[in-house]
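hey so u asked for the seq, here:
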Amino acid sequence: MKLFDGGGLFLLVHPKGGRWWRFKYVHGGREQLISFGTYPDVTLRRAREKRDEARRQVADGINPSFMRQIAKEAQADTFKALALEWLGKQHFAPATLEKARWTFDDLIFPDIGNRPVRELTAPEVLEMLRRLEKRGKHETAHRTKQRVGQVLRYAIATGRADRDVTADLRGALTPVKVTNHAAITDPVGVGGLLRAIDAYRGQPVTEAALRLAPLVFVRPGELRAAQWSEFNLAGVEWRIPAERMKMKELHIVPLARQAVEILTELRPLTGPEGFVFPCLRDPNRPMSEVALTAALRRMGYTGEEMTWHGFRTIASTLLNEQGWHPDLIELQLAHAERNQVRAAYNKAQRLPERRKMMQAWADYLATLRNAERAQAA
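ran it, structure tokens below
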């Protein structure tokens, strides 16, 4: 049960008696929560003081959660402290910020987070990156090296480090081969993929994300960071804010009947507010792309066969083969339109056609999913 005090402050009362102060706020277009401690250890007066200070930080464009993490890092010159400080000063899109946080929390901090930046060496960083390479994560290793270098250059600029040791790693990592996102585009294979998704048993949130992805075919980050406030299930549409889109424009996703059913089932579990697909370890963060990719791998699909981004390729390929107008498909994929006059016309005039296409697409996927079952019967 939640007892609201106002201004984002509320007391979360557990059925077994625990009572926690929580503060809800919006930063960078994302709803977030932080804890102010337990009652009665933290009085109502003190909780309100903490709320007021946090609200001032939000008004100044500062994320209170980042400031709290920074304050916890007493050793001001550890890599983790500098990384959190640097991250708190960036103006990343929410999806980019979430991915950067995951890179630091899961890949970097466990190895070098507590190391003083002045003592960090190139061999230490290379050892960390080589572990990623041994797992076949060559592109991830290069991105991780880039993040380490950004933090070290910030440390140099603020007088807390002397040099960027990642500069010594030039040529030390395996070059990344540029490839397209793998996807199954054969209708029979797509039917098999859909049946595998239906048979998958994992966390309910992951199951729902897997089932919804083929029906909406948005970018992975757009799906993972979806918030309930963006959905109008009665109006059968999902409005993704401009700040979460690659092209920085509002994107409307018409919802087929099948998509609404999935979201209606999920809403009691993760709604009615916050992330639609929250992280299991921290509900204030969206689920990671790693969790989704791992689900595909557990279903038996390798990275050369199917990627999470591949759902967009499936839709683009098969919708074009079915004869849908390319403009409709490109609009629904939220690709950039070079001709601005044509783009304005499309956005204003083609939503009804897109609604029709999205329902037809969902019905077509149902046909592919049930094809083998019908033959067996």
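The chain has a mean pLDDT of 87. The chain has three domains: 1-72, 90-177, 187-376.
lmk if thats what u needed
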